[in-house]
Every structure is written in C-alpha cells, then in structure tokens.
Amino acid sequence: MNIGKIIRKYRKEMGITQEEMAARLGVTTPAVNKWENGNTLPDIGLVAPIARLLEISTDELLQKPYWVIDILPEQVPRESKGQFFEILLRNRMISI
User: Fold this and answer.
1) What's this model's pTM, rounded to 2 decimal places?
2) pLDDT values of the chain reduced to their tens digit, one per residue, 96 residues
3) Residue 40 φ/ψ, nearest 5 degrees
4) Which domains does the chain have, with CATH numbers?
C-alpha cells in the first residue's frame, strides 16, 4: 500500500475530511487530495505530523510497498539475470 492509500484509509477511519486534515496540517485541500491519489508525496517535514494526526506510527505511514525487492542483483543466479530484470522492467518495478 502506498502512502496516499494509507493516509486515505486512516483519515476516513477517523472521520476527518480532506479539508479538516489540510487545515490541521497547514496545507491546501488539493495537496491532501494529490497525496491520496498518488500524484504527489507529502513533504518529508509533514511525515511526523501526519502520523500524529492519524494516530499511527511513522513506520506504519511509511510502509514498504509490496513491490520493494529485498534482493541484490548479484544474488540472482547468472543464468536468470536477463529474465529477472525483464520481469522487473515489465512490471515497472525498476526503470533504466
């Protein structure tokens, strides 16, 4: 889940509107909307205030996306490297 989806999920669970959230964080309503739709990311200085507002930890807010790969290229067997990177490129997990 990306940060925008996490923000939307917890904001709705708390019954806070985008307008209320924006006012409490000192940002515009369109900014909150853009975060939630994945168009932009909140400024790093807002991560802790957002987490406090949503009553979650910063770790919860910054969850590692499901597609982050915990493998180093050198750990992939030589004979599989072409196929491995082709899959990553095709699924937009990496870019060149």
Assistant:
1) 0.66
2) 689 999 999 999 999 999 999 999 999 999 999 999 999 999 999 999 999 999 999 888 988 554 455 566 666 666 666 676 677 677 665 655
3) -140, 170
4) 3-61 (1.10.260.40), 67-96 (no CATH)
Taking the C-alpha atoms of residue 36 and residue 22, their distance in angstroms, rounded to an integer, is 12
Burial 10-36 (b: 16+ CB within 10 A, else e): bbeeeebebeebbeebebeeebbbbbb
With residue 18 as reference, give the H or E element that holds it.
helix 18-25
Rounded to whole angstroms, how far apart are CA atoms 66 and 2? 9
Query: What is the C-alpha separation between 63 and 88, in angstroms, rounded?
Result: 20
Nearest alpha carbon to residue 35 among 24, 46, 15: 46
The amino acid at residue 49 is: P
Whole-angstrom distance, CA of residue 54 vs CA of residue 8? 10
